Amino acid sequence: MSAANRAGGARPVSTAEFESLFAGLVSAPAIILAVSGGPDSTALLFLAARWRAKRKHGPKLLAVTIDHGLRAESAREAKQVARLARKLGVVHRTLRWTGKKPTTGIQEKARQARYGLLADAASKAGASHVLTAHTLDDQAETVLMRLIRGSGMTGLGGMAKDTRLGEISLLRPFLRVPKARLIATLKAAKIPFIDDPSNANPRFTRIRMRALMPALAGEGLSAERLALLGRRMRRADAALELAAEVAAEMLSSGPWSDAGPISLEAAGFGLLPSEIALRLLGRAVTARGDEGPVELAKLELLHAALASQKPGAVRFRRTLAGALVTLTQDRLVVERAPPRRGRSAALTTRPRGRK
User: Fold this and answer.
1) What angle, 0 to 180 degrees and rounded to 10, lies between the N-to-C axes of helices 296-307 and 274-288?
2) Hey, how many other C-beta atoms are within 10 angstroms of the C-beta on 36?
3) Cβ proximity of 179 and 44 under 8 Å
4) pLDDT tens column, 137-168
């Protein structure tokens, strides 16, 4: 189904609604609008321009189009966005993703490149915020994809409305707005937009998930329900993160601010509910390791191995994500692992038995 046909009987976004969507941005020095030319981002450009035009003072708007160079039409589409931005009184820039393109994982690599270019544009423009046009439908698809992959509670929370992009705030004002309402807004204002054919390519996981949505909605699992699940998971996730912070304060022998080992009371750690223990362990491994955030499945294996140790057992060691985790009778210590010397980066277990 083309984007133009998705509006159905949806109503356009009202003046009161878009005032609410952009509330809190009046004092921002400048705002970057990520505009690809599709219906969602075109609506972002149109509504932001209307919002800014209604006030004497407010942030400068800069619409940025990222030309990934993956389709022959992309340069022409960027020029189309530039013409619309000029008509709406918004400054526009086209930034290009240059260099050799990957042959696998293209969507994820393109996403990373896009955010990097947007952050750089924000820094150069003195902007405090980058706005993207992710909708309620995008949120539902994200939650569904992560549900299928077996993500934990943090992943099932979906996309955050406000997160960090380096030193810049990445804001998604449309996360509770259905795509159909944005399309209806553009149709009512006679604003043209681009219908990207790659949005119907079943090669991509998100597109296949999108194709499932009507059947799922027929069974009651609508985009609204999936997005609601995401909000509830995010709420619960925040509560558990706070509990993990409290546990860290109670069980740590000292602050985590320096680069030394993190030492936790072993008995107290063993009494924690599994979810809190997992989060505390994950924080420690990420803080002292050098391979980035640890995968949940590997973290669960490590926690299970720790929980299986009997009181008074001999010292137990395991490396994970560049961190060395040592369990003694009294303490659970997490520190930077020594150089691997050619060993596999996979999870390595070294329980020390009696000789």
Assistant:
1) 110
2) 24
3) no
4) 999 999 999 999 999 999 999 999 999 998 99
Residue 318 amino acid letter? R
Query: Torsion over CA of 129, 133, 136 and 142, rounded to 10 degrees?
Result: -90
Name the token pair of 154. Answer: 């943090």
Distance CA 289, CA 337 (A): 7
| C-alpha–C-alpha distance, residues 45 and 42, integer Å | 5
- At a CB cut-off of 8 Å and minimum separation 6, what does 218 contact? none
**pTM as predicted:** 0.86
Q: Are 61 and 34 in contact (CB under 8 A)?
A: no
How long, in residues, is the chain?
355
Gap between the Cα atoms of 180 and 10, Å rounded? 6
- The SS3 assignment for 287 reads helix
> What confidence tier does 73 reach under pLDDT thresholds 50, 70, 90?
confident
Tokens linked to 141: 């698809």
pLDDT digit string (tens) for 247-283? 999 999 988 987 899 999 999 999 999 999 999 999 9
Q: How far apart are CA 120 and CA 203, in angstroms?
A: 30
Q: Positive or negative, the Cα torsion across 21, 24, 26, 31? A: negative
Written as six digits, the tokens of 255 are 């602050």
User: 211: which 2 tokens?
Assistant: 């194709």
d(Cα 288, Cα 265) in Å, to the nearest integer? 17
- For 168-217, write each residue's pLDDT tens digit: 999 999 999 999 999 999 999 999 999 877 677 787 888 899 999 999 99
Q: Write out the two tokens for 110.
A: 């393109």
